[in-house]
Amino acid sequence: MKITILGNGDSLGTPRVYCGCEVCEEARGGGSNARLRPSAWLECDGEEPLLLDCGPDWRRQMEKLSVRSVSQGLLTHAHFDHIGGLVEWADACRWLDTTATVYTPQEVIGEVLGRFPWIGSRLLLAANDAGIAYGGWKIVPWRVNHGKNGYSYAYRFDHGENGKSWAYCSDSFDLSEEEKAPLRGVDLLVLGTSYYKEPYERETRSLYDVVEGVELVRETGAKQAVFTHLSHDIDVRKDYGLPSYVKLASEGLVITI
Question: Which terminus of the chain has a smaller tally of CB atoms within 10 A, N or C?
Answer without folding.
Answer: C
